[in-house]
Structure formats: structure tokens, C-alpha cells
Amino acid sequence: MSLNDYSFRNVWSVRAATARVFDALVDLANYPAWWPDIRAVTRVDDDTAEVTCRALLPYALTFRLHRAEQDERSGRMRVDMTGDLEGYCQGVVAEHRSEGALLAISQRVMVNKRLLRTFAPIARPLFRANHAVMMHRGQRGFRNYLTPATRPGSP
């Protein structure tokens, strides 16, 4: 594996029905509503969107996500990525006990952005940490987005 290849795996637990989790997962247009590091999503066509994200480090990544698989019955989705990142991201939603769902996210990407490729030999650990922060904030935002408010008078 080169310094510009990355593999990530995250598991998010969410107190929501699997169908609701899956619907939110495949609704790319609403990612900026719950994921603070997703700065913009632009629909290209029915199966493709362009995404710009930026976490803690002072660079943004722009890439296209193209739907490769979307099967609600099996809880599986996959998007292929091109642009500053090339590869794929896939998610599997499964029931978790009686209280909600688990979302397993796997990513395998190669970095194409010149800045990141140039600094990979010394900054790779920072890039991985930046990704971890982004995923943590995504999980927190996703949980809040899907979990009903617990304020008095909430439905």
C-alpha cells in the first residue's frame, strides 16, 4: 500500500429504525444538515453528486460520489469516488438489539489531491487523525439528526 492509499472502517450505533438510518444514509443532499464537515453537496444527476468536505486541517477535498449499489432490503449501499479521492465508500445498516441500528462504514481511497500527496510522507498520521475527527463529528451529527428531541413537549 502506498502512502497515498487509505483504508478506514467505522461503526456507528444509532437509536433509530434501520429503514430510517438507511434513508438518511442515501440522502446525500441532506448531509450538510447533520455533518458539519460536509460543506457542500451538488447533484450532478440521479446517481451522482459532487461533495466538498473539510475537517480540521486547512484543506478541502472535492470529489464525486456515484451510486454503485443501493439495496434497502439488505441494508447495503456503495458509492464510487473520483476527484481529490478515488475509490469507494460503502455502508451496511443492520438491526442492533431492540434499540436501533448499526452502520458499518468501509472506505478505501487513493488521494489524488497534489497537496496531500506531497505531504503524505510526513503528514499521513495527521491526515488519518483529521479523518477520524470528521467521522466522529459525522456520527454525532447523524445521531442527533435521527434521534427525536428529548425536550418536554417533543413528539
Short recap of the structure:
The chain is α+β, with helices and mostly antiparallel strands. The protein has helices at residues 18-26, 31-34, 114-146, and strands at 5-14, 38-45, 48-53, 61-71, 76-83, 85-96, 100-111.
**Strand residue percentage:** 35-45%
Overall mean pLDDT: 94
From the coordinates shown, what is the CATH architecture? 2-Layer Sandwich
Largest sheet: 7 strands, antiparallel
Shape: globular
Poorly predicted runs of 5 or more residues: none
How many angstroms separate the termini?
50 Å
Number of domains: 1
Q: Any overview of this molecule?
A:
The protein has 155 residues and is of the alpha+beta class. The chain has a single domain, classed as 2-Layer Sandwich (Alpha-D-Glucose-1,6-Bisphosphate, Chain A, domain 4). The protein is built from three helices and seven strands. Strands 1-7-6-5-4-3-2 form a seven-stranded antiparallel sheet. It starts with a strand and ends in a 9-residue tail after the last helix. The mean pLDDT is 94.
